[in-house]
Amino acid sequence: MASRERRSDAVANRDRIVEAARVELSESNGAAADLKLHRVAKAVGVGQGTLYRHFPTREHLLAEVYRYELTQLVDAVAPLLAEHPPLRALTRWMERLVEYARVKRGVMAAIEASAWRDLYSDQHHRLDEALETVLQSGKAAGEVRDDVDAADVILLLGALSRIPEAEWEVRAHTVVKVIVDGLRPRPERS
Length: 190
Description:
- By secondary structure, the chain is mostly helical.
- It has helices at 2-27, 37-44, 48-54, 58-75, 77-83, 86-110, 113-140, 150-157, 168-183.
- Pfam families: TetR_C_43, TetR_N.
- Keywords: DNA-binding, Transcription, Transcription regulation.
């Protein structure tokens, strides 16, 4: 029984560490280099040994924060589609994507290139599938053009990586609005 309790405590500690790191990253505008592991441990109320037992390096913790953010983004699709018309759901989902992109950019800067490729290659299909789900729903409702797919939108979203941090708040949301406007069906011309 004590072993089971320890395991559930360990899982809870791990989850709390990831959440605290996510909050720290959010407060530092995704600047992973500014993530202080001792502050994360203190915020959670665990010792540094506990933090390092779960995440031996900053990169391990950042990779888990990235996975968490991606999971939250992917899991948001169904509830958004249930609550909103497809184009509105897509817009709200892409607004969440802006925060994900900010964290991703900070994580990318802090994780070695080879480790980032491995992490991203294991996960990127989930993002593509989530986006495709929202796009297909929009197409079925006549709210999204038939001639675009997730790959097209992902290419356009690449513009987020070029936005200077100082301009992020204004420009990232504008980029999303422009992309969503471009996804609307065009009136047929005679």
